[in-house]
């Protein structure tokens, strides 16, 4: 019988649908480490990414690694590649709440909700709006057009926003442009949204040149990874009012140290990497996908959300 190791947190949603699978339901990293080298299927997600990587490294017989996380930068990718392990990730599972989070951040920035709340705390009745921008018919660049990027575009369609997506394969009608085509056009957009994976290619993709090319009223929104943005350069751009502002759900490092100057940068919202957790259905969707993939794995069929370990997503 195929042996698997799965966190007990997901047990109620998975166990009724996995007949014939010999599962160890672990409750701690130590328990997971004890059985790691004996399992064929592993679902080792945990908040301690270093410990998670150690456990996966120890799982030398692992043929399929499942994860709810979309990024794999914390995994021992070289070891997984060398073993030929199939890796399935959580791409798209949290696309809906993340897209809602993006719109929340955009609206908060457009209407300057921070200023409104500050006036409330001062018991001050304002004579005019601190922010009067509209999302309606605004021009939006979405860099990274996977499941999350597409869901962001769909959610913004209610505002009749003019979406330009960046993807590996451009579209003839211009609605999606290639990875080499977005920088010359940065000055066109009111919003620049980062939804790309963290890879060597995307490291600090938003730096001094890119920020200088943006409109001085444009806002940057990052719901991808903190490594995509050169943060010291962003702080300088915010201090100099080179751009309108930024909404950062992800930063580097995480948690952000209390003495990091990013906390005090003007016109900046930091939301502690909460966008993917803003859902009551995350584990339900993850469990459903695991069950579907288990059936495909047993039949030798193509699985859902298989990671290309060479590309990193």
Q: Main beta sheet, described?
A: 7 strands, parallel
Low-confidence stretches: none
CATH class of the largest domain: Alpha Beta
CATH architecture annotation of the largest domain: 3-Layer(aba) Sandwich
Distance between the termini: 31 Å
Structural class: alpha/beta
Number of strands: 12
CATH topology of the largest domain: Rossmann fold
Count of distinct structural domains: 2
Order of helices and strands: EHEHEHEHEHHEHEEEHEHEEH
Report the principal-axis shape: elongated
Considering DSSP H and I runs of 4 or more, what fraction of the residues is helical? 25-40%
CATH superfamily of the largest domain: NAD(P)-binding Rossmann-like Domain
Q: Can you give the mean pLDDT?
A: 95
Summarize the structure.
With 313 residues, this protein is an alpha/beta fold. The protein is built from 10 helices and 12 strands.
Features:
alpha/beta, Rossmann fold, 31% helix, 15% strand, elongated
What would your notes on this structure say?
By secondary structure, the chain is α/β, with parallel strands linked by helices. It folds into 2 domains: 3-92 and 279-299, Rossmann fold; 95-277, NAD(P)-binding Rossmann-like Domain (Rossmann fold). The protein has helices at residues 11-14, 29-35, 49-58, 77-83, 95-111, 113-121, 147-156, 208-213, 231-239, 282-299, and strands at 3-7, 22-26, 41-43, 64-66, 86-88, 139-143, 162-166, 176-177, 191-194, 219-222, 245-248, 268-270. The strands form 2 sheets. The protein has a 7-stranded parallel β-sheet, covered by helices on one side. A 5-stranded parallel β-sheet has the order 2-1-3-4-5, with helices on one face. Helix 7 links the parallel strand 6 and strand 7. The longest helix has 18 residues, at 282-299. The relative contact order is 0.13.
